[in-house]
Write a structure and sequence with these properties.
Blueprint: E1 6-10, H1 12-22, H2 35-45, E2 49-53, H3 63-72, E3 77-81, H4 85-94, E4 98-101, H5 121-132, E5 137-142, H6 146-154, E6 159-163, H7 165-172, H8 177-192, E7 196-200, H9 208-211, E8 217-222, H10 224-233, H11 235-246
Helix pairs in contact: 2-3, 2-11, 7-8, 10-11
Amino acid sequence: MSDGLKLGVNIDHIATLRQARYRTMPEAGNVEPSVVEAARICEEAGADSITVHLRVDRRHIQDADVFALREKVATKLNLEMGNTAEILEIALEVKPDYVCLVPENRQEVTTEGGLDVAGQVGALKATVERLQGIGTEVSLFIDPEAAQIEASAAVGGDMVELHTGAFANAFAAGEGEEELGSLIEGAKQAREVGLQVNAGHGITVGNMGRLCEVPNLVELNIGHHLVSRAMAVGLGEAIREMREAMSQYSS
């Protein structure tokens, strides 16, 4: 585990690859790739936590994956989930180290945009309290907006994960100054109201340099870039490359 900026690795797309072939035969003896093995590789290469998103439609991660990872993960297990009764009951049984509450739209390819915490304070507060009651710390995946940060503190969250997708997309187009400014201000505000500041979505080795301008960051959650890069250099090396890029960060 690192002493500086921490790295959470999202392994959803390891399961996406598995499901592409074995969705209808999960008990086959030759099912691959293994999310448990992927988590082991990630941890050995320097991951500080393992993230999975258990979606209502079970498009990639399955219930059995979450329970297996809870048993095998040696660092921290971070469960991303929508605020639904079904998934909450699973989380309460699994007891992950962290839960990150995210928006969930069955039509989306991946999570796009932050959770509207301000629009559902009552429902989210109840979920946060139940999760914290079993010792799980709760993060809220939000856009870097003042109202959402204030609401995240109001529902009793421990952390926010600032959605960096708009910044990443703009950066790829040769822009991104406005989006970076929003992240900087959001990180400052979140820290002021007592929330740990994490970030995630679309982060790559290429845009890490500019993201380093955002203060108060504690942990980054990265998935797609690492799994994609793994096709060329292997998962362990992809993580080591990202750790090297992150080493320049100073809060």
